[in-house]
Amino acid sequence: TDGPTEEERMELERISMEKTIKKEAVEKMELSRKEEEEKKETKRRKDEWSARVQEVKEQEEEVLQAQSYPLRNYLMKHVMPTLNQGLIEVCKVRPEDAIDYLAEYLFEHNPQVD
């Protein structure tokens, strides 16, 4: 006897192949698990980023609203009454050049020039 018989050699090859197949299956499962974890982490980060972006947008909107109140109040108090009356007058008269007519109306009815 110089070594393993043909049957023993075949059995050793079969065992080696089974080990290789099992090892590959375990590696494949581990890779799938890691990929799934990476997907979950990517989704979590994306969701977190989206939430932060939304929060920043809401904060910016609040700031813009707060900053616009003085301007809005000024316009409502000093500009809109005269402008509304001018637009109503333009609708009544229907001049050929409505913009020029409105400009003249605003100049003539400017309450701060009286």
List the helices and strands and how they pair.
Layout: H1 6-93, H2 98-108
Helix pairs in contact: 1-2
Please tag this protein with its features.
2 helices, mainly alpha, 0% strand, 114 residues
What amount of the residues lies in strands?
under 5%
Look at the structure and give the mean pLDDT: 93
Helix content: over 70%
Our count of helices gives 2
Radius of gyration: 40 Å
- Along the chain, the helix and strand elements come as HH
What's the short story on this structure?
The protein is an all-alpha fold and 114 residues long. It has helices at residues 6-93, 98-108.
Structure, described:
The protein is mainly alpha-helical. It is 87% helix and 0% strand. The protein has two helices and no strands. The protein has helices at residues 6-93, 98-108. The N and C termini lie far apart (126 Å).
